[in-house]
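Shift notes (night). Ran Transporter, RND superfamily while the centrifuge was going.
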Amino acid sequence: MLILVSVQGAQSISMASGTETFVEKSSQLYQDFDHLYMNIFGTEAIVIIIEDGQVNDPAVLQAMDRLDHMSSSLPGVVGVQSAATIVKDANYGLTGDASLPEDKAELQSLIDNYVPGYLMPDDTHTLIYVETSGSLSDEQKQEILREIETSVSLAEFPPDYNIVVTGDPAFMVSMNNAMMSSMGVLLGLSVVLMIVVLFLVFGHVRWRLMPLAIVLLGIIYTFGAMGYLEIPLSMVSMAAFPVLIGLGIDYAIQFHNRIEEELERGESPAEAVVDTIKHTGPAVLIALIITALGFFSLLTSSVPMIQDFAKLLLIGIVMCFLASLFVGVTVIYGLDNMQSIRKERFGHISLRNRKNSEASSPVEPQPDILDRFLGRTTHFTIKHPFMILSIAVLLCAGGLAADTQVPIQTDTETFVPQDLPALIDLTHLSDITGGEEQLNIIIKTDNVADPEVLGWMDEFSAHEVNSRNNIQGAESMASVIKSMNGGVIPASESEIRTLYEQMPDQQKDRLMYGENMLLLNLNIGDATATLGMEGLEVLTDIVREDMLWMSPPPGMTATITGSSVVFIEVIGALTSGRIFMTYLGLSMVFGGLLLIYRDILKALVPVVTMFMVVGWSGGLMYVMGMEYTPMTATLGALILGVGSEYAVLMMERYFEEKEKGATPEEAMTEAGVKIGKAIVTSGLTTLFGFCALVASDFVIISSFGMITVIDVALALFATFVVFPPVMVLLDNFREKRKAQKIITAGSFEDNIETIELAKHNTEPEADAF
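Came back to this:
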């Protein structure tokens, strides 16, 4: 029933990639960009390149004219700019004939005098700009792109010409499609690798692949919850599913391993279920809570898609836990009963049931090679705590220092496969045009025809183009009016309004809105590639300072915005909050453990273990020459949630063994063997699952997979190498303190048993005691 409900909810999941996924809707940045710029002036251009021939050929312009007609009628297209439209408008103004001249000399004259350079950069290249509304969804952009590609084939260009459809919308659609396709393949490969690991490592239990089925059930529940809670799917939130598979399979493995352990001891299925829920249930639940606290720090990000990523992780781990607790345990109980009934029906009683019926003492299974390795490792680390911890602390300190030197990669074009056809086409367009990125300045005024307003726009534009090397040109109503009036701005408002009336509506709407808003575009070429995000941020700050220095006239305000400005803020928010989120996650994990256990030792040891992992991870990234990306910048908080779970589960089993009367050393060795195999299995399953992501052609995905593999491996290593000596050392210290207090409070004769207990717990220190 829940699967059916989840499938129904999943139908409501939407893909989000607009401004609202990067910037909070309540922020001023969003208001300026989305409400002022995108909704009023914003357009995105699908660019069609015609090349490899003489582009002034009448046959080419006729084909362009046919393409213009087909493209301009598409829903969502607000205008088409091409050499053909310019020539037709110019011919109409001169002769009253709104068609393309058939005479080649007449046509060339109109091209030379009226077609701007950005539409025809040279004799062998011409461009068509199909401008679409900036508020279109990804699905609408994809539909328009499909229609334009069809129109290109129907426009009948001469056969010797090469036609390329490109531009930012085409690139984004192609990249999203390629990434979705790649993610599907990688998740499939991830599942295959997990199956291999479960076969190799989880072979000591029956139905060894069941944890994978249980976690996939939890993922289905998560999809359903996403739909009902209206959490969109974005490029970042998609990365939550590999994480959830890794965490969810850990929950399923822990329950599966414990119930099989209880059954091997000779308990009945019902007794095994009760003991499993009694001992493993609370441990896994506490691990889940601590994991959630680690993820909770991601909610502090100012980027909505990171917040959605955190929400998806929090919902997903709860769903996977519930699936493991109720479905996983129940299915094992049912399968075991069915297996017993089948054997009894055919006259065979299982060894376990025969032992129960004869009330014989249960036979403990012999340890295998992994059990022996874990036991020896735990024993070694306990016996040499100061050497182990000294090395760990030194490496952690060095890693934390090196982490500050790890670079942050913000060039988005490096995140995608360099042989992606859409990227090659976009790079080719940049080579032809020199880049088309802009800084957009929105000007609010009481009178859009005020000569003083247009004069300031013209003066400010000239200053920026002449004094800033990376600003290649400017476009505004001031430049249009000057071109219509012999290179000067009219001195009177009436003259300006007369020129406004002569201007085509399409041109006017691109740069002016009503009676109180104008747009000034500063062309910065391909600044993202040439300057990088840091350089682009510096350039934006310089333009802001220039606007303060050359302040607009009274009653007029200027606001700088645009996609480049938004992207600067987004990258800054994704990367600058990395360290804060990590330490906030550590603090929340510590506070959560302290609240749950009310025991400083139980709260401190898992946090110390994971702190080591944070330092080691930064150091390894520096040594390996890796870079942080917007996707991997959140992994500090992420690994806290994943790694803390291993430490908490180990700690729970340690204290369970201590309650049975074992010394700290014995309890830790026993815990390392008993639960160690389950932790190693879940850790290796998670690790190999992420190994599939490393094979991705997308650098942003492969680096996410690589760093996650490193962090999961470090978390496993710390759980078996750092956690045991820290726990035993501090627990022994606490036991000695307790014993000394009791001895001090009473007489020697009344405390003989306490002395014996202290000797038993302190081993080498007993003689000194």
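The longest helix spans residues 304-345. Strands lie at 43-51, 77-81, 125-133, 162-166, 437-444, 473-476, 512-513, 517-525, 557-561.
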